[in-house]
Amino acid sequence: MYTRTEENYLKAIYSLSKKEGKDVSTNSIADRLDTKASSITDMIKKLSAKKLVSYTKYKGVNLTKKGEKIAVEIIRNHRLWEVFLVDKLQFKWDEVHELAEQLEHVKSEKLINNLEAFLGFPKFDPHGDPIPDRLGVLPKREESKTLDEMLEDEKGVIVGVKNSEIEFLQFLEEHDLTLGKTITVQKRFSFDSSKVIGLNGESITLSEQVCKNIILKTS
Amino acid sequence: MYTRTEENYLKAIYSLSKKEGKDVSTNSIADRLDTKASSITDMIKKLSAKKLVSYTKYKGVNLTKKGEKIAVEIIRNHRLWEVFLVDKLQFKWDEVHELAEQLEHVKSEKLINNLEAFLGFPKFDPHGDPIPDRLGVLPKREESKTLDEMLEDEKGVIVGVKNSEIEFLQFLEEHDLTLGKTITVQKRFSFDSSKVIGLNGESITLSEQVCKNIILKTS
DNA sequence: CTTTATTTTTAGATTAATCTAAAAATATTA
DNA sequence: TAATATTTTTAGATTAATCTAAAAATAAAG
Ligand SMILES: [Mn+2]
Ligand SMILES: [Mn+2]
Ligand SMILES: [Mn+2]
Ligand SMILES: [Mn+2]
Hints:
Chain A has helices spanning 4-20, 26-33, 37-49, 65-87, 97-103, 109-118, 166-174, 208-211; strands at 53-56, 60-63, 145-146, 155-161, 182-189, 194-199, 202-206, 214-218.
């Protein structure tokens, strides 16, 4: 139906428009996909001709309903494959993203629906990101906040991360800061917004940067 | 490492040279891949430059050790994915080939090795074809013959098919002629080489064409 | 051993996705 | 607002994979 490249553009535009709200700029897509702005302009014209994005020169793009539907489908594929790799094939959460980037483009509705059933209809992927159902509806997470927003003595369970880069995930893994772990804020230093937290009976110091990227459910 | 197209050419050359013995001709590859002969010549030059095939103009091609290694790797991927689809995701044996054609190109040694372990190190795919191990070694099947070669009153267990086209597989499925079934040759008609066989206590007539494409282990 | 038929290769085009360099539009700042 | 900087688009090339049509090589028939 659509080429792998087209799908990757749609996915990039989708997540950029979620993150930045407004129209998505040529340069931001170029950054995200690690290509040149001129290539983006070309592809945008193609996507626009196919009614997958709405585009006005110099003003940026937005996904149409049609374009968004495809983007969400690919995201669904991506996240279900990540669950498969972690739950069934013994992969760690920092090893699955690149592979899922390949697997997400395999074309078969039956495959992905059967895979979903095989995995027990998971609602979140190994990084805590929501998995769209077959209609494209994203599950809502219960009330949650970032560790950065938590106060001293507050307690919470890790339910997701905002950054899925390998180095960050490995850092968390090494400190046993994985999904489902319960932590308590022991101290907050106002001069740099770093925190000391309690985990497994031990204390760890975490930078503001780290705290901003951990999502918790506070009871 | 190699493009999807290159991999498909190598796979085609591999199976054609197994089937036909001698040098593989440009036209036979074109037929197999449903492309024009001129495209084949172009690609062969590319593969030759990469030392994946040995090629002399007008004389056809053969895989080098390097080329064969890649072809066998892709076949390993293909067959393991087929097992996954049938054993874990409820696919029928006539539904998996096209999907496996996509999945076989996903690049990750760890993925395929973990998948193999997850599946319990299967030796044959859903069509009875041998699955190369991680070193590229193909398991040997026990003594077997085609139904066409069997004599009256001879008994055997279906262990594979020589033709994996959807229509043929569906035909077999409808008659419950699936892997593992035991059948007995009840009668052979010499005028057209058709046979009446016994299966599940019933009798079925099968054409020579069909008999030539069913592989059995005779006790 | 010629002539004819078939197969294979070459030449030249096309399409998708990318790039560099330059031009045009928009945004910033003095 | 005018000058400057940044962003975006256009123009022209490149690479991979394919095609059609024509030329060259090989094989088959007479
Ligand atoms: Mn991912
Ligand atoms: Mn994820
Ligand atoms: Mn197959
Ligand atoms: Mn098979």
